[in-house]
Amino acid sequence: MEVQVLPPVLTLNTIMKAVIRTEKGDMEVEFYHQDAPKTVENFLNLARKGFYNGLTFHRVIPHFVIQGGCPQGTGAGGPGYTIPCELTGNNQYHDRGVLSMAHAGRNTGGSQFFICHSRLQTAHLDRNHTCFGRVTHGLDVIDAIRQGDRILSIEEC
Questions:
Q1: What is the rounded distance in angstroms from the CA atom of residue 112 to the CA atom of residue 14?
Q2: Residue 42 falls within a domain, yes or no?
Q3: Residue 11, in any domain of the structure
Q4: Which of 6, 39, 82, 138 fits as disulfide partner to 27, beta carbons 3.0 to 4.6 Å?
Q5: 79: DSSP letter
């Protein structure tokens, strides 16, 4: 008798996590899949394909954000498609360690994301950019990242 193994079922209480491995260390992330399910799914699908492996943090602004996910390394590239913003969830506030989708205008995000240094200069981004997760361990890595540092991999856990 063959045993069929089914994939895990996501429930409202399921916590989706990943590790962003960088040259400066690892950041553990919990995703806001209840508030931004399409953005989380997009990010994880790209990560599963290895899209982010070797890409740089092309934009680093102290006390603001670190930004990566551009295949060109310039801030102008993406995966070849766009996704809609998800701005109505409960966790749409840009605080220290929050992951958010970068875009060139509403509903133009794709692969570029940023991680906030602090709340001090990011409040104006609330409900303008989709927050889709937060760093739970490795916050010090955000401060260590410099422009040009590489993302080694992003792995679900």
A1: 25
A2: yes
A3: no
A4: 138
A5: S
- Give the pair of three-digit tokens for residue 78: 């993406």
- Encoded amino acid at 17, one letter: K
DSSP string, 28-40: EEEE-TTT-HHHH
Report which residue type is found at 22.
T
The overall average pLDDT reported for the chain is 93
d(CA 79, CA 147): 21
How far is Cα of residue 109 from the mean position of the Cα atoms in its chain?
11
Q: How many domains does the chain have?
A: 1
Segment 27-49, tens digit of pLDDT: 999 999 999 999 999 999 999 99
77: domain range?
A: 17-156
Whole-angstrom distance, CA of residue 101 vs CA of residue 119: 16
Helix (H) or strand (E) holding 46: helix 37-48
Question: Considering the domain boundaries, does residue 26 fall inside one?
Answer: yes
